[in-house]
Amino acid sequence: MVDGSTLTIAGNHIKSYKKSNTTGVQKTNEFSLSLSPSDSENHISTHLLKAGYTRKIISNETGHLKIHYSKQGNTVIGATFAAQNS
Prior knowledge:
Number of helices: 1
Distance between the termini: 31 Å
Radius of gyration: 13 Å
Oligomer: single chain
Strand order of the largest sheet: 3-4-5
Order of helices and strands: EEHEEE
Strand content: over 45%
Number of strands: 5
Helix content: 10-25%
Shape: globular
Protein backbone atom coordinates (compact mmCIF):
# COMPACT_ATOMS: atom_id res chain seq x y z
CA MET A 1 0.00 0.00 0.00
CA VAL A 2 1.04 3.63 -0.40
CA ASP A 3 1.89 3.94 3.31
CA GLY A 4 4.19 0.92 3.12
CA SER A 5 1.90 -1.41 5.06
CA THR A 6 1.11 -4.88 3.79
CA LEU A 7 -2.02 -6.99 3.73
CA THR A 8 -1.54 -10.70 4.34
CA ILE A 9 -4.22 -13.20 3.34
CA ALA A 10 -4.08 -16.91 2.51
CA GLY A 11 -4.27 -17.62 -1.21
CA ASN A 12 -2.43 -17.69 -4.51
CA HIS A 13 -1.47 -14.88 -6.87
CA ILE A 14 -2.92 -15.75 -10.28
CA LYS A 15 -1.76 -12.87 -12.51
CA SER A 16 -0.94 -9.17 -12.73
CA TYR A 17 -1.42 -6.82 -15.64
CA LYS A 18 -1.63 -3.12 -16.52
CA LYS A 19 -4.24 -1.47 -18.73
CA SER A 20 -4.10 2.11 -20.01
CA ASN A 21 -7.20 4.26 -19.55
CA THR A 22 -8.13 7.95 -19.82
CA THR A 23 -6.64 8.79 -16.41
CA GLY A 24 -3.42 6.79 -16.62
CA VAL A 25 -2.77 3.12 -16.01
CA GLN A 26 -4.93 0.65 -14.11
CA LYS A 27 -2.92 -2.01 -12.30
CA THR A 28 -4.76 -5.27 -11.73
CA ASN A 29 -3.79 -8.22 -9.57
CA GLU A 30 -5.86 -11.38 -9.44
CA PHE A 31 -5.78 -13.77 -6.50
CA SER A 32 -7.45 -17.04 -5.61
CA LEU A 33 -8.13 -16.96 -1.87
CA SER A 34 -8.79 -19.85 0.46
CA LEU A 35 -11.49 -17.90 2.35
CA SER A 36 -15.08 -17.51 1.17
CA PRO A 37 -15.82 -14.32 -0.80
CA SER A 38 -17.55 -12.71 2.20
CA ASP A 39 -14.76 -13.68 4.62
CA SER A 40 -12.12 -12.43 2.14
CA GLU A 41 -13.91 -9.09 1.76
CA ASN A 42 -14.31 -8.77 5.53
CA HIS A 43 -10.58 -9.40 6.09
CA ILE A 44 -9.48 -6.93 3.42
CA SER A 45 -12.10 -4.34 4.40
CA THR A 46 -11.08 -4.45 8.06
CA HIS A 47 -7.44 -3.77 7.15
CA LEU A 48 -8.24 -0.94 4.73
CA LEU A 49 -10.73 0.74 7.08
CA LYS A 50 -8.07 0.75 9.83
CA ALA A 51 -5.72 2.40 7.31
CA GLY A 52 -8.24 5.23 6.77
CA TYR A 53 -10.00 4.03 3.63
CA THR A 54 -13.77 4.26 3.15
CA ARG A 55 -15.79 1.41 1.67
CA LYS A 56 -18.46 1.76 -1.04
CA ILE A 57 -20.45 -1.17 -2.43
CA ILE A 58 -20.64 -0.82 -6.21
CA SER A 59 -22.70 -3.96 -6.82
CA ASN A 60 -23.87 -6.88 -4.74
CA GLU A 61 -25.39 -9.72 -6.70
CA THR A 62 -25.62 -13.36 -5.75
CA GLY A 63 -22.08 -14.75 -5.70
CA HIS A 64 -20.51 -11.48 -6.90
CA LEU A 65 -19.57 -8.45 -4.79
CA LYS A 66 -17.78 -5.36 -6.14
CA ILE A 67 -16.32 -2.81 -3.68
CA HIS A 68 -14.34 0.43 -4.01
CA TYR A 69 -12.07 1.50 -1.17
CA SER A 70 -10.96 5.12 -1.26
CA LYS A 71 -8.80 7.45 0.78
CA GLN A 72 -8.20 11.10 0.05
CA GLY A 73 -4.97 11.61 -1.87
CA ASN A 74 -4.72 7.92 -2.85
CA THR A 75 -5.81 5.87 -5.83
CA VAL A 76 -9.11 4.01 -5.47
CA ILE A 77 -8.69 0.31 -4.74
CA GLY A 78 -11.33 -1.73 -6.52
CA ALA A 79 -12.06 -5.30 -5.49
CA THR A 80 -14.35 -7.95 -6.87
CA PHE A 81 -15.18 -11.00 -4.77
CA ALA A 82 -16.75 -14.01 -6.44
CA ALA A 83 -17.07 -17.69 -5.72
CA GLN A 84 -15.25 -19.90 -8.21
CA ASN A 85 -16.87 -23.00 -9.61
CA SER A 86 -14.67 -26.06 -9.32
